[in-house]
Amino acid sequence: MSNTQTTKLLTITPKAAEKVLTFMKEEADKPEFLRVYVQGGGCSGLSYGMGFEQKAEEDDMVIEENGVKMLIDSYSADYLKGANVDYIESLMGAGFKINNPNVTKSCSCGSSFSTS
If we measure between CA atoms, which residue out of 75, 18, 76, 28 comes closest to residue 52? Predict the structure, then answer.
């Protein structure tokens, strides 16, 4: 496992961090990390995923911000440079949103994206 990164590959807003920490406390196995990743799929080619983890894998980068330790694998790191995890509440619902400056095209449903 690599050391904690000092450069901000990925950031998380205070509001999103608060929600993540609340959800982590509700989990029975008390996870230590939030994994943020990119995977193939969706109508634009790539989609985001998030989940809780107990430990980091060997190729993971660990970024700690606003009390949340985030894991990013080496594949996802290329697509998440400079991205930000936020939590949005609106009349249409609430949920996490990843704001990514690398996205060049996203699908109309908003669940997948592509980069140049």
Answer: 28
